[in-house]
Design goal:
The complex is a heterodimer of chains A (273) and B (308). With 273 residues, chain A is an alpha+beta fold. Helices cover 32% and strands 43% of the residues of chain A. Chain A is built from 6 helices and 16 strands. Chain A has a 6-stranded mixed beta sheet with strand order 2-13-12-4-7-9. Chain A is elongated, with a radius of gyration of 32 Å. Chain B has 308 residues and is mainly alpha-helical. Helices cover 71% and strands 6% of the residues of chain B. Chain B is built from 11 helices and 5 strands, in the order ββααααααββαααααβ. In chain B, the strands form 2 sheets. A two-stranded antiparallel ribbon of chain B has the order 1-2. In chain B, strands 3-4 form a two-stranded antiparallel ribbon. The chains are: A alpha+beta (273), B mainly alpha (308). At the A-B interface, strand 5, strand 6, helix 4, helix 5 and helix 6 of A face strand 1, helix 3, helix 5, helix 9 and helix 10 of B.
Chain lengths: 273, 308
């Protein structure tokens, strides 16, 4: 099995709005393909919203979930559950059931409800996704014993920077028969990296600069608008001055017409106001 | 066109952000409120994390309130003396409010008190202002300046006139004890600290009904005071939570500075009773919105708590 990607590093610049990662390679003939993108396993803290005083929904008990990926995206050439046996799914962390079996919810009570809400929260933030039906991974039979597979992954702009792992599995008769993997790096560059670094490591300087620039903008805008108003007034007054300069006249008649006369040949034009 | 936000770690469309800035600036110039209670939920709806939304909103308000203060200053609408006394009080109140939150957290019911304040305060203030403004419309001649129809001062006026250290506030045309604006500033500062907002929507009605200041001077003095509050919040949020996204604030402040100028000009064209009705409706709608949010079951019951 081979695994190729158009790029190994995704650069996040000032105009970044997510990127498409093209994944392709060869797989044994007759095999299905599952592709998984994950960030390293970590621990995250959450609060559960509960009803207080029978009226208001507010933050209640705190929960920690350990052994979860901050980002988890999975694609398959057919339905995951139909393609891969439960044992192989669990052993290779394929599907939300496998993610749940590897995670530890603390405190453990209501862990099923907590995990279900956790998945909803992650999916709403664009960090968890399972694209299972409709052949998300395309398989094209080729000459010989191998087939080609391809997939375009839309990496959302919310993905945090860091090192991700791309895993590809070849599946036959419900079992994973081969696999390949490679790291994918998401990194900030240029102005994004500088601002991010300053905000994180030099909060005082960053805060003072943010206040100073905002103050300056507030100071500049009022005179600027005043200047624009003056320029606009000048532009509106200019035609009258121009006519005087070339020896013409503009007469505002009371009948709703403006008469423009140029002396040289006594040509006049009436324009409705 | 999309811009990537280096602290919020997401990208956002430029045009809606500029429009939000203009709308918030307009409110600031028109009513003398900071708009923090509007900007945070709107940014959250656009996918910005709550802490970044609140801190960056404060940052962009530095520009809007500078622009609004300057314009109101030129129009002679800022009572500097009153503003400084109120500021001194709100500074002390802010410290007391933070301590109150700590004490409530230790008792385990801080969240409940905060949410309750969020509901009760805007609805009661907005409701009172609206009722009072509508009464003013029906009873022409009855002034909102605390003087009864017979021209006699109210019981509150008589009580306040007996406080020590009476002084004239020439710009507002009122005479009060120095202790009054300091005390009011402290009380609003406590509430603002508990609610995590600038407090403009509390301060404006207080200046109107207790300090009896003219509406236009209230707006100018309120934005002057908000300027200092948002500078403090921006700096503290940058130092402690690293949650100010300057790129996000910069885009919004371009719109909000211009919006604040337009709002100030518009406020000159509206009379005090029109401004009062519009502001009361705004405050009331915020209270109702928060009430609906708090009583409706959230789509997702889990929320990120931060930390690893």
């Amino acid at each position: 099995m081979t695994l190729d990607t158009a790029r190994d590093t995704i650069q996040v610049d000032a105009f970044y709005h997510g990127k498409t990662l093209t994944v392709s390679g060869t797989v044994g003939g007759g095999e299905g393909v599952v592709v998984k993108v994950t960030s390293p396993a970590t621990k995250e803290n959450f609060t559960l919203k509960e009803k207080a005083a029978g009226a208001f929904w507010m933050s209640g008990e705190k929960y920690a979930i350990d052994g979860i990926n901050d980002v988890y995206m999975l694609y398959s050439s057919g339905g995951l559950n139909a393609m891969v046996s439960e044992t192989d799914r669990r052993d290779n962390g394929l599907g939300y059931d496998a993610v749940r079996s590897a995670a530890a919810v603390n405190p453990a009570r209501n862990s099923a409800e907590i995990f279900s809400e956790f998945i909803k929260l992650k999916e709403a933030g664009g960090l968890y996704l399972i694209s299972d039906g409709g052949g998300a991974v395309k398989i094209t039979p080729s000459e010989g014993r191998e087939s080609r597979y391809s997939l375009s992954i839309s990496l959302p702009c919310q993905l945090p920077g860091g090192l991700y792992r791309l895993d590809v599995y070849g599946v036959k008769d419900g079992e994973i028969v081969e696999s390949a993997s490679k790291p994918i790096k998401i990194e900030t560059v240029g102005m994004v990296r500088e601002v991010s670094y300053l905000a994180e490591n030099h909060g005082g300087v960053y805060g003072a600069a943010a206040v100073a620039i905002a103050l300056l903008a507030g100071f500049v805008v009022t005179p600027l608008i005043g200047l624009l108003k003056t320029l606009l007034a000048l532009t509106l007054a200019l035609p009258g001055h121009l006519m005087t300069f070339i020896g013409g006249t503009i007469t505002d008649n009371s009948d709703g017409f403006v008469r423009i006369t140029i002396k040289k040949n006594e040509t006049s034009l009436e324009v409705k106001k | 066109m999309y811009i990537y936000l280096p602290v919020a770690h997401t990208s956002i469309s430029l045009i809606p952000l500029l429009l939000i800035g203009i709308a918030i600036g307009l409110l600031s110039g028109l009513f003398g409120v900071g708009g923090g209670f509007l900007i945070t939920p709107v940014l959250m709806m656009m996918g910005i994390p709550p802490t970044v939304a609140a801190a960056s909103g404060a940052n962009q308000m530095v520009a809007a309130s500078t622009s609004a203060t300057l314009t109101h200053w030129k129009l002679g609408n800022v009572d500097m003396k009153m503003g400084i006394y109120l500021l001194a009080g709100s500074f002390v109140g802010g410290i007391l409010g933070v301590e109150a939150i700590k004490a409530l957290s230790a008792l385990g019911n801080a969240d409940f008190v905060i949410k309750l304040t969020y509901v009760i305060l805007p609805i009661s203030i907005g409701g009172f202002m609206l009722a009072e403004s509508l009464r003013g419309f029906t009873k022409k001649g009855k002034s909102a300046q605390g003087v009864s129809s017979a021209g006699k001062p109210s019981w509150m006026d008589r009580l306040l006139s007996h406080l020590p250290m009476q002084t004239d506030f020439e710009k507002s045309g009122v005479r009060h004890s120095t202790l009054l604006p300091i005390g009011i500033g402290a009380a609003v500062g406590v509430l603002a600290a508990i609610m995590g907002v600038g407090g403009g929507f509390i301060m404006v009605p207080v200046m109107l009904y207790i300090l009896k200041m003219p509406m236009k001077i209230i707006i100018g003095t309120s934005v002057f005071q908000i300027l200092f509050t948002v500078i403090e919040v921006t700096f503290l949020q940058s130092c402690t939570n690293h949650s100010v996204d300057f790129v996000l604030a910069l885009i919004m402040l371009i719109g909000s500075s211009a919006g604040a100028y337009a709002g100030t000009m518009l406020s000159e064209k509206l009379d005090a009773s029109q401004l009062k009705i519009l502001l009361s409706l705004l405050i009331l709608s915020v209270g109702v919105k928060i009430l609906i949010e708090l009583t409706s079951r959230p789509d997702i019951l889990l929320a990120f708590a931060g930390g690893k």
